[in-house]
Amino acid sequence: MTLLPLGDSAVSVGLGALIDEGMAARVRALAAEIARHPPRGLVDLVPAFASVAVFYDINRISGFERLCADLEALVTRSEDAVVSTTGRRIEIPVTYGGEFGPDLEAVAAQTGLRASEVIASHASADYLVHAIGFMPGFPYLGGLPARLSVPRQVTPRPNVAAGSVGIGGAQTGIYPVSTPGGWNIIGRTPRRLFDPARAEPALLRPGDNVKFRAIDALEFERTFVAEQTLLHGPAEAAARAEGADISPGIQVLRAGMFTTVQDLGRTGHRAGGIAVGGAADAFALRVANLLVGNAETAAGLEFTLVGPEVVFLHDTVVAVGGAEFGGVPRWQPYAITAGTRVNFGAARSGCRGYLAIAGGIAVPPVLGSRSTHVRAGFGGLQGRPIREGDLIPVPDAVPRVMGHWRIDERILPRYSNAPEVRVVAGAERRDFGPELCGPGFKASPQSDRMGLRLSGPMLARQTRRELLSSAVAPGTIQIPPDGQPIVLLADAQTIGGYPQAAHVISVDLPVVAQLRPGDTVRFREVALAEAHELALAREHALAMLREGLAQKLG
Prior knowledge:
- This protein is of the alpha+beta class.
- The chain has four domains: about 1-80, Gyrase A, domain 2 (2-Layer Sandwich); about 95-230, Cyclophilin-like (Cyclophilin, Beta Barrel); about 245-410, no CATH class; about 420-535, Cyclophilin (Beta Barrel).
- Helices cover about 20% and strands about 25% of the residues.
- The chain has helices at about 20-35, 65-80, 105-110, 115-125, 215-230, 235-245, 280-290, 510-515, 530-554; strands spanning about 1-5, 10-15, 40-45, 50-55, 90-95, 125-130, 140, 155-160, 165-170, 170-175, 180, 185-190, 210-215, 245-255, 260, 300-305, 310, 315-325, 335, 340-345, 350-355, 390-395, 420-425, 440-445, 450-455, 470, 475-480, 485-490, 495, 500-505, 520-525.
- It has a seven-stranded mixed β-barrel with strand order 5-12-9-10-7-6-13. A seven-stranded mixed barrel has the order 23-30-27-28-25-24-31. Strands 15-16-21-18-19 form a five-stranded antiparallel sheet.
- Helix 1 crosses helix 2 and helix 3 packs across helix 4 (about 115-125).
- The chain is globular, with a radius of gyration of 24 Å.
- It starts with a strand and ends with a helix.
Protein backbone atom coordinates (compact mmCIF):
# COMPACT_ATOMS: atom_id res chain seq x y z
CA MET A 1 0.00 0.00 0.00
CA THR A 2 1.27 3.46 -0.92
CA LEU A 3 -0.04 6.96 -0.25
CA LEU A 4 0.99 9.54 -2.84
CA PRO A 5 -0.19 13.17 -3.02
CA LEU A 6 -2.24 13.94 -6.12
CA GLY A 7 -1.57 17.67 -6.08
CA ASP A 8 -2.53 19.57 -2.94
CA SER A 9 -6.18 18.49 -2.77
CA ALA A 10 -6.09 14.71 -3.21
CA VAL A 11 -4.12 11.63 -2.24
CA SER A 12 -3.86 8.41 -4.24
CA VAL A 13 -4.03 5.17 -2.26
CA GLY A 14 -2.18 2.52 -4.25
CA LEU A 15 -2.82 -1.17 -3.64
CA GLY A 16 -0.31 -2.76 -6.03
CA ALA A 17 0.73 -3.05 -9.65
CA LEU A 18 -1.34 -5.93 -11.02
CA ILE A 19 -4.65 -5.86 -12.86
CA ASP A 20 -6.82 -8.88 -12.13
CA GLU A 21 -10.16 -9.73 -10.56
CA GLY A 22 -8.62 -9.92 -7.10
CA MET A 23 -7.22 -6.41 -7.37
CA ALA A 24 -10.52 -5.12 -8.74
CA ALA A 25 -12.30 -6.56 -5.70
CA ARG A 26 -9.81 -4.90 -3.35
CA VAL A 27 -10.27 -1.52 -5.05
CA ARG A 28 -14.07 -1.79 -4.80
CA ALA A 29 -13.84 -2.82 -1.15
CA LEU A 30 -11.61 0.14 -0.30
CA ALA A 31 -13.83 2.63 -2.14
CA ALA A 32 -16.88 1.23 -0.33
CA GLU A 33 -15.13 1.41 3.06
CA ILE A 34 -14.12 5.03 2.50
CA ALA A 35 -17.68 5.91 1.42
CA ARG A 36 -19.10 4.24 4.55
CA HIS A 37 -16.59 5.87 6.90
CA PRO A 38 -15.58 9.11 5.15
CA PRO A 39 -12.54 10.86 6.60
CA ARG A 40 -13.08 14.43 7.67
CA GLY A 41 -13.00 16.75 4.64
CA LEU A 42 -13.74 14.08 2.03
CA VAL A 43 -15.00 15.59 -1.24
CA ASP A 44 -14.88 12.80 -3.83
CA LEU A 45 -13.49 9.35 -4.71
CA VAL A 46 -12.06 7.93 -7.94
CA PRO A 47 -11.51 4.15 -8.03
CA ALA A 48 -9.06 3.12 -10.77
CA PHE A 49 -7.32 -0.13 -11.69
CA ALA A 50 -5.19 -0.57 -8.57
CA SER A 51 -5.76 2.63 -6.64
CA VAL A 52 -8.39 4.88 -5.12
CA ALA A 53 -7.93 8.66 -5.23
CA VAL A 54 -9.37 10.57 -2.28
CA PHE A 55 -10.15 14.25 -2.89
CA TYR A 56 -10.34 16.49 0.17
CA ASP A 57 -11.11 20.06 1.22
CA ILE A 58 -7.98 21.54 2.80
CA ASN A 59 -10.20 23.79 4.95
CA ARG A 60 -11.96 20.83 6.56
CA ILE A 61 -9.34 18.14 7.12
CA SER A 62 -7.63 17.78 10.51
CA GLY A 63 -4.17 17.94 8.93
CA PHE A 64 -2.72 15.96 6.03
CA GLU A 65 -0.89 13.49 8.29
CA ARG A 66 -4.13 12.69 10.13
CA LEU A 67 -5.92 12.17 6.81
CA CYS A 68 -3.23 9.71 5.70
CA ALA A 69 -3.43 7.86 9.02
CA ASP A 70 -7.22 7.55 8.65
CA LEU A 71 -6.79 6.20 5.12
CA GLU A 72 -4.24 3.63 6.24
CA ALA A 73 -6.72 2.38 8.83
CA LEU A 74 -9.46 2.19 6.21
CA VAL A 75 -7.19 0.17 3.90
CA THR A 76 -6.66 -2.36 6.69
CA ARG A 77 -10.38 -2.58 7.35
CA SER A 78 -11.17 -2.93 3.66
CA GLU A 79 -8.74 -5.85 3.24
CA ASP A 80 -10.75 -7.73 5.86
CA ALA A 81 -13.94 -6.89 3.98
CA VAL A 82 -12.85 -8.05 0.51
CA VAL A 83 -15.26 -10.63 -0.83
CA SER A 84 -15.36 -12.29 -4.22
CA THR A 85 -18.76 -11.31 -5.57
CA THR A 86 -20.26 -11.47 -9.01
CA GLY A 87 -21.40 -8.06 -10.23
CA ARG A 88 -24.32 -7.38 -12.49
CA ARG A 89 -24.25 -9.13 -15.84
CA ILE A 90 -24.99 -6.71 -18.66
CA GLU A 91 -25.27 -7.54 -22.35
CA ILE A 92 -24.09 -4.94 -24.86
CA PRO A 93 -25.30 -5.42 -28.46
CA VAL A 94 -22.72 -4.42 -31.07
CA THR A 95 -22.78 -4.01 -34.83
CA TYR A 96 -19.25 -4.86 -35.95
CA GLY A 97 -17.34 -3.59 -38.97
CA GLY A 98 -18.25 -1.32 -41.87
CA GLU A 99 -19.19 2.24 -40.95
CA PHE A 100 -19.72 1.08 -37.36
CA GLY A 101 -16.25 -0.43 -36.99
CA PRO A 102 -13.81 1.26 -39.38
CA ASP A 103 -10.73 -0.39 -37.82
CA LEU A 104 -12.00 -3.97 -37.83
CA GLU A 105 -10.10 -4.97 -40.94
CA ALA A 106 -6.89 -3.31 -39.67
CA VAL A 107 -7.17 -5.20 -36.37
CA ALA A 108 -7.67 -8.42 -38.30
CA ALA A 109 -4.56 -7.73 -40.37
CA GLN A 110 -2.45 -6.96 -37.28
CA THR A 111 -3.57 -10.11 -35.47
CA GLY A 112 -3.41 -12.46 -38.47
CA LEU A 113 -7.12 -13.27 -38.12
CA ARG A 114 -10.08 -12.91 -40.42
CA ALA A 115 -12.54 -10.14 -39.55
CA SER A 116 -15.15 -12.76 -38.68
CA GLU A 117 -12.70 -14.38 -36.25
CA VAL A 118 -12.02 -11.03 -34.56
CA ILE A 119 -15.76 -10.56 -34.10
CA ALA A 120 -16.28 -14.08 -32.77
CA SER A 121 -13.35 -13.79 -30.36
CA HIS A 122 -14.37 -10.35 -29.09
CA ALA A 123 -18.01 -11.33 -28.57
CA SER A 124 -17.25 -14.68 -26.90
CA ALA A 125 -15.12 -13.27 -24.07
CA ASP A 126 -16.33 -12.30 -20.60
CA TYR A 127 -15.30 -8.80 -19.50
CA LEU A 128 -14.97 -7.12 -16.13
CA VAL A 129 -15.46 -3.39 -15.61
CA HIS A 130 -12.32 -2.28 -13.75
CA ALA A 131 -12.96 1.46 -13.75
CA ILE A 132 -15.05 4.27 -15.22
CA GLY A 133 -13.13 7.28 -16.48
CA PHE A 134 -11.73 9.31 -19.39
CA MET A 135 -15.24 10.54 -20.26
CA PRO A 136 -18.57 10.24 -18.43
CA GLY A 137 -19.54 6.57 -18.32
CA PHE A 138 -16.48 5.28 -20.25
CA PRO A 139 -15.79 1.70 -19.03
CA TYR A 140 -12.29 0.21 -18.94
CA LEU A 141 -12.93 -3.49 -19.56
CA GLY A 142 -10.50 -6.28 -18.72
CA GLY A 143 -10.76 -9.72 -20.26
CA LEU A 144 -9.85 -9.00 -23.89
CA PRO A 145 -8.48 -12.17 -25.51
CA ALA A 146 -4.69 -11.83 -25.76
CA ARG A 147 -4.67 -12.42 -29.50
CA LEU A 148 -6.81 -9.29 -30.02
CA SER A 149 -4.38 -6.98 -28.24
CA VAL A 150 -3.21 -4.28 -30.66
CA PRO A 151 -1.59 -0.90 -29.96
CA ARG A 152 -3.59 2.31 -29.97
CA GLN A 153 -3.75 4.49 -33.08
CA VAL A 154 -0.60 6.51 -33.75
CA THR A 155 -2.75 9.56 -34.50
CA PRO A 156 -6.02 9.76 -32.53
CA ARG A 157 -9.21 10.48 -34.45
CA PRO A 158 -10.58 14.00 -33.94
CA ASN A 159 -14.02 12.50 -33.32
CA VAL A 160 -15.16 9.02 -32.35
CA ALA A 161 -18.92 8.40 -32.48
CA ALA A 162 -20.85 7.77 -29.29
CA GLY A 163 -21.30 4.03 -28.70
CA SER A 164 -18.10 3.06 -30.50
CA VAL A 165 -16.46 -0.11 -29.18
CA GLY A 166 -12.68 0.04 -29.28
CA ILE A 167 -9.55 -1.93 -28.48
CA GLY A 168 -6.60 -0.20 -26.84
CA GLY A 169 -3.70 -2.47 -25.98
CA ALA A 170 -4.95 -5.28 -23.73
CA GLN A 171 -8.28 -3.59 -23.00
CA THR A 172 -11.56 -2.91 -24.68
CA GLY A 173 -13.90 -0.02 -23.97
CA ILE A 174 -16.98 1.86 -25.16
CA TYR A 175 -17.11 5.57 -25.97
CA PRO A 176 -20.26 6.94 -24.27
CA VAL A 177 -20.17 10.32 -26.06
CA SER A 178 -18.60 11.67 -29.23
CA THR A 179 -15.02 12.63 -28.45
CA PRO A 180 -11.49 12.44 -29.85
CA GLY A 181 -9.95 9.03 -29.25
CA GLY A 182 -7.09 6.75 -30.19
CA TRP A 183 -8.51 3.26 -29.67
CA ASN A 184 -9.13 0.90 -32.64
CA ILE A 185 -12.86 1.04 -33.39
CA ILE A 186 -14.27 -2.36 -34.32
CA GLY A 187 -17.99 -1.77 -33.79
CA ARG A 188 -20.70 0.37 -32.24
CA THR A 189 -23.50 -0.25 -29.78
CA PRO A 190 -26.91 1.43 -29.88
CA ARG A 191 -27.09 1.30 -26.07
CA ARG A 192 -26.73 4.64 -24.29
CA LEU A 193 -23.76 4.32 -21.93
CA PHE A 194 -24.35 7.68 -20.25
CA ASP A 195 -27.45 9.78 -19.68
CA PRO A 196 -27.39 12.55 -17.03
CA ALA A 197 -31.19 12.29 -16.72
CA ARG A 198 -31.01 8.75 -15.30
CA ALA A 199 -30.87 8.16 -11.56
CA GLU A 200 -27.54 6.42 -12.20
CA PRO A 201 -26.14 8.28 -15.24
CA ALA A 202 -23.50 5.68 -16.18
CA LEU A 203 -24.93 2.40 -17.48
CA LEU A 204 -21.97 0.42 -16.14
CA ARG A 205 -20.14 0.50 -12.82
CA PRO A 206 -16.91 -1.13 -11.55
CA GLY A 207 -17.43 -4.82 -10.84
CA ASP A 208 -20.04 -5.36 -13.57
CA ASN A 209 -19.61 -8.28 -15.96
CA VAL A 210 -20.11 -7.43 -19.63
CA LYS A 211 -20.90 -9.66 -22.57
CA PHE A 212 -20.98 -8.34 -26.14
CA ARG A 213 -23.53 -9.70 -28.63
CA ALA A 214 -23.16 -9.23 -32.39
CA ILE A 215 -26.22 -7.70 -34.08
CA ASP A 216 -27.02 -6.55 -37.59
CA ALA A 217 -27.62 -2.97 -38.72
CA LEU A 218 -31.41 -3.37 -38.62
CA GLU A 219 -31.41 -4.34 -34.93
CA PHE A 220 -28.95 -1.52 -34.26
CA GLU A 221 -31.41 0.99 -35.72
CA ARG A 222 -34.40 -0.40 -33.76
CA THR A 223 -32.51 -0.35 -30.46
CA PHE A 224 -31.02 3.07 -31.15
CA VAL A 225 -34.45 4.61 -31.80
CA ALA A 226 -35.83 3.03 -28.62
CA GLU A 227 -32.94 4.44 -26.57
CA GLN A 228 -33.38 7.94 -28.00
CA THR A 229 -37.04 8.11 -27.01
CA LEU A 230 -35.95 7.92 -23.37
CA LEU A 231 -33.35 10.68 -23.71
CA HIS A 232 -33.47 13.73 -21.45
CA GLY A 233 -37.10 13.40 -20.36
CA PRO A 234 -36.52 14.31 -16.69
CA ALA A 235 -34.02 17.04 -17.59
CA GLU A 236 -36.48 18.73 -19.94
CA ALA A 237 -39.22 18.52 -17.30
CA ALA A 238 -36.91 20.19 -14.77
CA ALA A 239 -36.13 22.96 -17.24
CA ARG A 240 -39.83 23.63 -17.83
CA ALA A 241 -40.58 23.62 -14.11
CA GLU A 242 -37.81 26.06 -13.30
CA GLY A 243 -38.70 28.25 -16.26
CA ALA A 244 -41.86 29.38 -14.49
CA ASP A 245 -39.78 31.27 -11.90
CA ILE A 246 -37.35 33.05 -14.18
CA SER A 247 -37.33 35.59 -16.97
CA PRO A 248 -34.94 36.33 -19.84
CA GLY A 249 -32.26 38.52 -18.33
CA ILE A 250 -29.70 38.78 -21.14
CA GLN A 251 -30.15 38.69 -24.91
CA VAL A 252 -27.11 37.55 -26.88
CA LEU A 253 -26.32 39.67 -29.94
CA ARG A 254 -22.90 38.09 -30.59
CA ALA A 255 -21.74 34.99 -28.79
CA GLY A 256 -18.02 35.72 -28.54
CA MET A 257 -15.61 32.81 -28.42
CA PHE A 258 -16.62 29.66 -26.56
CA THR A 259 -18.96 31.43 -24.14
CA THR A 260 -20.56 28.99 -21.71
CA VAL A 261 -22.53 28.95 -18.48
CA GLN A 262 -20.27 27.86 -15.61
CA ASP A 263 -20.41 27.66 -11.83
CA LEU A 264 -17.95 25.92 -9.51
CA GLY A 265 -18.61 22.49 -11.00
CA ARG A 266 -19.87 19.06 -10.00
CA THR A 267 -18.64 17.14 -6.99
CA GLY A 268 -19.34 13.55 -6.02
CA HIS A 269 -19.51 12.19 -9.59
CA ARG A 270 -15.88 11.51 -10.51
CA ALA A 271 -16.36 7.76 -10.00
CA GLY A 272 -18.73 7.83 -12.98
CA GLY A 273 -16.13 9.51 -15.16
CA ILE A 274 -17.80 12.93 -14.85
CA ALA A 275 -15.34 15.81 -14.72
CA VAL A 276 -15.70 18.43 -12.03
CA GLY A 277 -15.83 21.09 -14.73
CA GLY A 278 -16.97 24.55 -13.72
CA ALA A 279 -15.04 27.77 -14.20
CA ALA A 280 -11.46 27.23 -15.38
CA ASP A 281 -10.49 30.22 -13.22
CA ALA A 282 -12.74 29.45 -10.26
CA PHE A 283 -11.25 32.25 -8.17
CA ALA A 284 -12.34 34.89 -10.68
CA LEU A 285 -15.93 33.64 -10.73
CA ARG A 286 -16.05 33.39 -6.92
CA VAL A 287 -14.96 37.01 -6.51
CA ALA A 288 -17.27 38.30 -9.26
CA ASN A 289 -20.21 36.56 -7.60
CA LEU A 290 -19.37 38.04 -4.21
CA LEU A 291 -19.24 41.51 -5.72
CA VAL A 292 -22.87 41.32 -6.90
CA GLY A 293 -24.16 39.75 -3.69
CA ASN A 294 -24.42 36.17 -5.01
CA ALA A 295 -23.30 32.97 -3.39
CA GLU A 296 -19.85 32.04 -4.72
CA THR A 297 -21.39 28.95 -6.29
CA ALA A 298 -23.80 30.90 -8.53
CA ALA A 299 -23.57 30.37 -12.28
CA GLY A 300 -22.13 33.05 -14.55
CA LEU A 301 -20.77 33.32 -18.07
CA GLU A 302 -17.22 32.28 -19.01
CA PHE A 303 -15.85 33.61 -22.32
CA THR A 304 -12.53 32.95 -24.01
CA LEU A 305 -10.32 35.57 -25.75
CA VAL A 306 -13.34 37.29 -27.34
CA GLY A 307 -16.29 38.25 -25.17
CA PRO A 308 -19.95 38.38 -26.17
CA GLU A 309 -22.09 41.38 -27.06
CA VAL A 310 -25.31 41.37 -25.03
CA VAL A 311 -28.35 43.44 -24.12
CA PHE A 312 -29.53 43.42 -20.51
CA LEU A 313 -33.32 43.20 -20.35
CA HIS A 314 -33.78 44.41 -16.77
CA ASP A 315 -32.09 46.57 -14.16
CA THR A 316 -29.35 44.63 -12.43
CA VAL A 317 -25.82 44.67 -11.04
CA VAL A 318 -22.96 42.81 -12.71
CA ALA A 319 -19.27 42.22 -12.09
CA VAL A 320 -16.50 40.99 -14.35
CA GLY A 321 -13.44 39.04 -13.23
CA GLY A 322 -10.55 37.22 -14.82
CA ALA A 323 -9.07 38.47 -18.09
CA GLU A 324 -9.30 42.15 -19.02
CA PHE A 325 -12.09 42.85 -21.49
CA GLY A 326 -13.91 46.03 -22.47
CA GLY A 327 -17.47 47.06 -21.68
CA VAL A 328 -17.42 46.75 -17.88
CA PRO A 329 -14.59 47.56 -15.44
CA ARG A 330 -13.06 44.53 -13.73
CA TRP A 331 -13.34 43.61 -10.06
CA GLN A 332 -16.12 45.99 -9.06
CA PRO A 333 -19.93 45.98 -8.94
CA TYR A 334 -21.45 47.81 -11.89
CA ALA A 335 -25.06 48.97 -12.14
CA ILE A 336 -26.88 48.15 -15.39
CA THR A 337 -30.21 49.55 -16.53
CA ALA A 338 -32.69 47.73 -18.74
CA GLY A 339 -31.81 48.07 -22.41
CA THR A 340 -28.08 48.57 -21.84
CA ARG A 341 -25.94 47.05 -24.59
CA VAL A 342 -22.47 45.84 -23.65
CA ASN A 343 -19.78 44.58 -26.03
CA PHE A 344 -16.93 42.91 -24.15
CA GLY A 345 -14.76 42.63 -27.25
CA ALA A 346 -11.33 41.04 -27.43
CA ALA A 347 -9.31 40.35 -24.28
CA ARG A 348 -6.59 42.92 -23.69
CA SER A 349 -4.77 40.56 -21.35
CA GLY A 350 -5.47 37.08 -20.09
CA CYS A 351 -7.63 34.41 -21.67
CA ARG A 352 -10.94 33.90 -19.84
CA GLY A 353 -13.42 36.43 -18.53
CA TYR A 354 -16.28 35.87 -16.10
CA LEU A 355 -19.56 37.77 -15.95
CA ALA A 356 -21.55 37.48 -12.73
CA ILE A 357 -25.06 38.91 -12.66
CA ALA A 358 -27.13 39.54 -9.53
CA GLY A 359 -29.19 36.43 -8.86
CA GLY A 360 -27.02 34.20 -11.04
CA ILE A 361 -28.00 32.42 -14.26
CA ALA A 362 -31.05 30.23 -13.82
CA VAL A 363 -30.50 27.31 -16.17
CA PRO A 364 -31.62 24.05 -14.52
CA PRO A 365 -28.97 22.18 -12.53
CA VAL A 366 -27.84 18.82 -13.89
CA LEU A 367 -26.10 16.47 -11.45
CA GLY A 368 -25.91 19.26 -8.92
CA SER A 369 -24.40 21.94 -11.16
CA ARG A 370 -25.39 24.45 -13.83
CA SER A 371 -22.01 24.17 -15.56
CA THR A 372 -21.87 23.34 -19.24
CA HIS A 373 -20.19 20.02 -20.12
CA VAL A 374 -19.84 20.55 -23.86
CA ARG A 375 -18.26 17.21 -24.79
CA ALA A 376 -20.99 15.24 -23.01
CA GLY A 377 -23.70 17.69 -24.10
CA PHE A 378 -25.41 18.54 -20.81
CA GLY A 379 -25.71 21.41 -18.37
CA GLY A 380 -25.78 25.14 -19.12
CA LEU A 381 -27.86 26.06 -22.16
CA GLN A 382 -28.66 22.65 -23.69
CA GLY A 383 -25.11 21.45 -23.10
CA ARG A 384 -23.56 23.84 -25.63
CA PRO A 385 -21.82 27.22 -25.89
CA ILE A 386 -24.19 30.17 -26.18
CA ARG A 387 -25.23 31.34 -29.64
CA GLU A 388 -26.39 34.56 -31.25
CA GLY A 389 -30.04 35.09 -30.36
CA ASP A 390 -29.99 33.14 -27.10
CA LEU A 391 -31.98 34.48 -24.16
CA ILE A 392 -30.12 33.76 -20.94
CA PRO A 393 -32.49 33.26 -18.00
CA VAL A 394 -31.95 35.20 -14.78
CA PRO A 395 -34.12 35.00 -11.63
CA ASP A 396 -36.47 37.86 -10.85
CA ALA A 397 -34.48 39.49 -8.05
CA VAL A 398 -33.99 43.03 -6.78
CA PRO A 399 -30.27 43.84 -7.18
CA ARG A 400 -28.42 45.51 -4.35
CA VAL A 401 -26.45 48.43 -5.81
CA MET A 402 -23.27 49.04 -3.86
CA GLY A 403 -21.87 52.22 -5.39
CA HIS A 404 -18.63 52.70 -7.28
CA TRP A 405 -15.66 51.01 -5.63
CA ARG A 406 -13.09 48.31 -6.34
CA ILE A 407 -11.57 45.49 -4.35
CA ASP A 408 -7.92 45.58 -3.31
CA GLU A 409 -6.21 43.80 -6.20
CA ARG A 410 -3.56 42.39 -3.87
CA ILE A 411 -6.05 39.62 -3.19
CA LEU A 412 -5.88 38.52 -6.84
CA PRO A 413 -3.74 35.72 -8.29
CA ARG A 414 -0.45 36.71 -9.91
CA TYR A 415 -1.86 36.98 -13.43
CA SER A 416 0.87 37.39 -16.05
CA ASN A 417 1.73 36.48 -19.63
CA ALA A 418 5.02 34.97 -18.38
CA PRO A 419 4.31 33.65 -14.87
CA GLU A 420 6.29 31.40 -12.60
CA VAL A 421 3.87 28.69 -11.55
CA ARG A 422 4.41 26.57 -8.45
CA VAL A 423 4.04 22.80 -8.61
CA VAL A 424 4.32 19.80 -6.31
CA ALA A 425 5.96 16.59 -7.48
CA GLY A 426 3.86 13.98 -9.24
CA ALA A 427 4.03 10.20 -8.98
CA GLU A 428 6.45 9.95 -11.94
CA ARG A 429 8.55 13.04 -11.20
CA ARG A 430 11.71 10.95 -10.88
CA ASP A 431 11.18 9.53 -14.37
CA PHE A 432 12.11 12.91 -15.85
CA GLY A 433 15.10 15.21 -15.69
CA PRO A 434 15.27 18.81 -14.48
CA GLU A 435 13.91 20.33 -17.70
CA LEU A 436 10.35 20.59 -16.30
CA CYS A 437 11.55 23.35 -13.97
CA GLY A 438 13.99 24.80 -16.51
CA PRO A 439 13.75 27.82 -18.84
CA GLY A 440 10.05 27.38 -19.50
CA PHE A 441 7.37 26.49 -22.05
CA LYS A 442 5.06 28.26 -24.48
CA ALA A 443 1.26 27.91 -24.47
CA SER A 444 -0.08 26.22 -27.61
CA PRO A 445 -3.13 27.26 -29.66
CA GLN A 446 -4.33 23.64 -29.38
CA SER A 447 -5.26 24.20 -25.73
CA ASP A 448 -8.85 24.07 -24.45
CA ARG A 449 -10.80 23.63 -21.22
CA MET A 450 -9.54 20.06 -20.89
CA GLY A 451 -5.88 20.99 -20.92
CA LEU A 452 -3.23 23.61 -21.62
CA ARG A 453 -0.80 22.17 -24.15
CA LEU A 454 2.77 23.42 -23.89
CA SER A 455 5.73 23.41 -26.25
CA GLY A 456 9.36 23.65 -25.24
CA PRO A 457 12.16 21.36 -24.09
CA MET A 458 11.31 17.71 -24.74
CA LEU A 459 10.78 15.88 -21.46
CA ALA A 460 12.13 12.41 -22.17
CA ARG A 461 11.01 9.68 -19.79
CA GLN A 462 14.03 7.85 -18.41
CA THR A 463 12.34 4.49 -17.90
CA ARG A 464 10.09 2.14 -19.82
CA ARG A 465 8.23 1.03 -16.70
CA GLU A 466 4.59 0.35 -17.52
CA LEU A 467 2.01 2.53 -15.80
CA LEU A 468 -1.50 1.72 -14.69
CA SER A 469 -4.10 4.35 -15.49
CA SER A 470 -4.95 6.28 -12.35
CA ALA A 471 -6.83 9.36 -11.21
CA VAL A 472 -5.88 12.81 -12.47
CA ALA A 473 -7.19 16.24 -11.54
CA PRO A 474 -7.16 19.84 -12.75
CA GLY A 475 -3.54 20.92 -12.35
CA THR A 476 -2.01 17.52 -13.14
CA ILE A 477 0.92 17.88 -15.56
CA GLN A 478 0.93 14.85 -17.86
CA ILE A 479 3.80 14.01 -20.21
CA PRO A 480 2.62 12.23 -23.38
CA PRO A 481 5.03 10.31 -25.62
CA ASP A 482 6.03 13.44 -27.56
CA GLY A 483 7.54 14.88 -24.35
CA GLN A 484 5.47 18.09 -24.44
CA PRO A 485 3.59 18.73 -21.17
CA ILE A 486 -0.16 19.08 -20.85
CA VAL A 487 -1.54 20.87 -17.80
CA LEU A 488 -5.02 19.51 -17.17
CA LEU A 489 -7.76 22.10 -16.61
CA ALA A 490 -11.37 22.14 -15.41
CA ASP A 491 -12.83 19.69 -17.96
CA ALA A 492 -10.00 17.17 -17.55
CA GLN A 493 -10.78 13.48 -17.65
CA THR A 494 -10.98 11.69 -14.29
CA ILE A 495 -8.49 8.91 -15.13
CA GLY A 496 -5.36 9.14 -17.27
CA GLY A 497 -2.57 6.86 -18.39
CA TYR A 498 0.26 9.31 -19.14
CA PRO A 499 3.06 9.85 -16.59
CA GLN A 500 2.28 12.51 -13.99
CA ALA A 501 5.38 14.64 -13.60
CA ALA A 502 3.88 17.27 -11.31
CA HIS A 503 0.73 19.09 -10.25
CA VAL A 504 0.09 22.83 -10.33
CA ILE A 505 -0.83 23.96 -6.81
CA SER A 506 -4.42 25.07 -6.40
CA VAL A 507 -3.68 28.76 -5.79
CA ASP A 508 -1.80 28.99 -9.12
CA LEU A 509 -4.41 27.19 -11.23
CA PRO A 510 -6.16 30.51 -12.01
CA VAL A 511 -2.85 31.82 -13.39
CA VAL A 512 -2.57 28.81 -15.73
CA ALA A 513 -6.22 29.14 -16.80
CA GLN A 514 -5.49 32.71 -17.96
CA LEU A 515 -2.56 31.82 -20.24
CA ARG A 516 -3.26 32.51 -23.89
CA PRO A 517 -1.52 31.08 -26.99
CA GLY A 518 2.05 32.36 -27.15
CA ASP A 519 2.33 33.15 -23.44
CA THR A 520 5.17 31.48 -21.57
CA VAL A 521 5.30 29.73 -18.22
CA ARG A 522 8.04 28.48 -15.90
CA PHE A 523 7.49 25.86 -13.22
CA ARG A 524 9.01 25.91 -9.74
CA GLU A 525 8.68 22.95 -7.40
CA VAL A 526 7.51 23.54 -3.83
CA ALA A 527 6.77 21.26 -0.89
CA LEU A 528 3.24 19.99 -0.29
CA ALA A 529 3.17 21.75 3.10
CA GLU A 530 3.83 25.10 1.40
CA ALA A 531 1.05 24.43 -1.12
CA HIS A 532 -1.35 23.76 1.75
CA GLU A 533 -0.30 26.93 3.57
CA LEU A 534 -0.86 29.00 0.43
CA ALA A 535 -4.29 27.43 -0.13
CA LEU A 536 -5.35 28.21 3.44
CA ALA A 537 -4.07 31.78 3.12
CA ARG A 538 -6.09 32.25 -0.10
CA GLU A 539 -9.25 31.01 1.61
CA HIS A 540 -8.58 33.34 4.55
CA ALA A 541 -8.32 36.29 2.15
CA LEU A 542 -11.64 35.34 0.56
CA ALA A 543 -13.22 35.04 4.00
CA MET A 544 -12.06 38.57 4.79
CA LEU A 545 -13.57 39.79 1.50
CA ARG A 546 -16.88 38.09 2.33
CA GLU A 547 -16.92 39.75 5.73
CA GLY A 548 -16.20 43.19 4.28
CA LEU A 549 -18.92 42.80 1.65
CA ALA A 550 -21.42 41.66 4.27
CA GLN A 551 -20.81 44.86 6.21
CA LYS A 552 -21.17 46.97 3.05
CA LEU A 553 -24.47 45.28 2.22
CA GLY A 554 -25.76 45.84 5.76
